[in-house]
Design brief:
By secondary structure, the protein is an alpha/beta fold. The protein has 2 domains: about 1-85, no CATH class; about 95-245, 2-Layer Sandwich (Zincin-like), CATH 3.30.2010.10. About 35% of the residues lie in helices and about 30% in strands. Strands 1-2-3-5-4 form a 5-stranded mixed sheet. α2 (about 130-160) crosses α3 (about 200-210).
Length: about 250
């Protein structure tokens, strides 16, 4: 359901509006520009911003918002959740691992070693100085080791099913991509995937491996994905709702 509720102009080409999308009232900023030829939607810490051509019609804007309503609501919910849950990197904090929550325990040690998980506890061993940056570094290093092991195992499982073989599987720390695949057959998977449930990790693995057969997002590509990931549309939408920066 889409319903315009309020419209307050604050500048000739900038307006603050409120709409109802899928039963939720959402504030957004509308920007008009004679340099645009299409309607663009952006979600960041300022909320929803919609950029439109200078003389675009209300009907065109309404149609786009109707079409993108589900995406907008999921993206905003994901952004707001992640913004409220920034990690403090301190003893007693919680972190995410394979879709579950781990309790972070910071332990002083004369001989600091790698972090160790015991069920739903993650122990980080530090020296005499306890600094958030050092704790974060240790946790990230543990994430990367765990991610590397898991990704190799999932690629080894799915590659034969898709009849492909990557030339290499590497970790990525990209800020905007969960994964990528090069024309040379190198698959890169973001280490932050290790925070997500296994079914979402598997979707990204299958997605990138499928690019070894179709280096595009054509109908043929999605048919390849579907051969081993039948509910890829649902998983893709779940992943889109997650803000990578605070996954």
């Amino acid at each position: 359901m889409l319903k315009r509720l309020r419209n307050m102009a604050v500048a000739p080409n900038i307006e603050h509006r409120t709409i109802e999308l899928n039963g939720k009232h959402i504030a957004y900023t509308l920007k008009r520009s004679n340099k645009r030829r299409s309607i663009g939607l952006r979600i960041d810490d300022s909320g929803l911003t919609i950029s439109v051509p200078l003389r675009s019609s209300e009907k065109w804007l309404s149609n786009v918002l109707e079409d993108k309503a589900h995406w907008v609501v999921e993206k905003l919910d994901g952004w707001q959740t992640s913004s409220q849950g920034e990690t403090r990197w301190a003893d007693g904090e919680t972190i995410h691992y394979l879709g579950m929550t781990l309790n972070l325990h910071v332990v002083r040690s004369l001989f600091p070693t790698m972090a160790v998980r015991d069920d739903k506890q993650l122990y980080v061993f530090v020296g005499s100085r306890i600094e958030p940056a050092c704790i974060e570094q240790d946790v990230v290093r543990w994430y990367q080791i765990e991610a590397n092991k898991l990704f190799e195992a999932r690629v080894a499982h799915y590659a034969p099913l898709l009849n492909v073989m990557p030339s290499a599987v590497k970790l990525s720390s990209a800020r905007t991509q969960w994964g990528s695949c090069t024309a040379q057959g190198v698959v890169r998977l973001n280490y932050q995937l290790i925070k997500l449930p296994l079914h979402l990790i598997d979707y990204v693995v299958v997605h990138e491996l499928a690019h070894l057969r179709e280096m595009n997002h054509s109908a043929k590509f999605w048919e390849v994905v579907k051969t081993v990931c039948h509910d890829y549309v649902r998983l893709r939408n779940q992943l889109k709702a997650i803000y990578l920066g605070s996954a």
